[in-house]
Amino acid sequence: MKKIIWLLVLWWMAFTACSPKGTPPAGPVVLSHAGKDASCPYITKDGEGRTVISWVEKDSTADTGMMCYAVSNDNGYTFSDPVKIETTAGVYPHAENLPKLLFRPDGGVIALFGVEQHDPRNKYAGKVMYAVSADSGRTWGEAQSLVTDAAGYDQRYFDMALLPDGEAAAIWLDNRKDTKAEGSTLYWAVTAGGKGFQAAKPIAQTVCQCCRTRLYVAGNGDVHVAYRDIINDSIRDMVHQVSVDGGRSFSEPVRISADNWVVNGCPHTGPALTANKHGLHFAWFTMGGGQGVFYAGSTDNGKTYTQKESLSKAPMAKHPQIVTIPDDRVVIVWDEPVKWQGNFRSRVGIAIKSPEGQTITSRALTADSVYAAYPVAGALDGNTVLVAYTRKGEIVYERVSI
């Protein structure tokens, strides 16, 4: 009998050790190092299709930090120990100016991030840097400036995406412009093999100076950009442009929604964009024609858009992120203020939409008692998304069944 019991114990130990996918973590899991101030989560895929979360860590008394990342080998149930990217030391953590990783099919990895510029022409100026690994992240080259033109002293609010040919494209806001109108210029550049980003060129002007930009490459190779434009020197609404020739030319900007939001300031919350077989899907924050996070879709590649739809009952819901999952449903996450026991907190909201854009469900993801902000989402499979966010100086993630 004792032998049978012992064999059963050994069998159970082996079964539980080999079956992590059968027992998902209960609730959010802390990913960042203990004792560090962590922020800026970002979700992507590596060259093998594994889910990767990156973020920034710093000492609580420091202004700058370093990028870290972790890789999941079991579809988002667990992640590797965090890996530091030493050559990103000095990154300035800013969840709108979000540091990002891009994995190329040839094993190369690019880390794109912002630092302080310390330029006498603008004491608040920033600079976009990038570091490259040629061996899947095992070693990294020294960080280098995205812009080498001496006239470009302020760059920020960047995005990066993989092109069909395996090269990486980047967009960013830049001080260089040839108009007296308010706003920054949106620049575009593409890597050229091992030579880094080359042939930078402006593709839009009068862009809101401190809202994040969005670069998205659709399955058919079309390149989409979205940003908050400054229209007629006063209206700050979201616009979209598309390139059907790999970035050589872009269409004229078209407003996603005529919110007509007149504001003399920077909202610090940019657009989110994804696509599926039914078209384009956008989410954004505005205080024009309503307040909060809204959604609109386009079935004609951005020429026209559906009437905007409010996603949250909270009037100041902000910072939306959006992703398409394998069955073509669309998932949107955001943060929103909430009052708990007399104090204001922030919680994460989530909406699930059908492939055509109809809302299936919309609800709070995190408890009102914690402060959860700046969520990001990544597709795991047709029934699950991974959501990561900042919680009290920690990066946490959770698998969400949809």
UniProtKB/TrEMBL annotation:
Domain of life: Bacteria
Record keywords: Signal
CDD domains with a match to the protein in the record: Sialidase_non-viral
Leader sequence segment: 1-19
SUPFAM superfamilies: Sialidases
InterPro entries: Sialidase_sf
Entry protein name: BNR repeat-like domain-containing protein
Organism, as annotated: Chitinophaga eiseniae
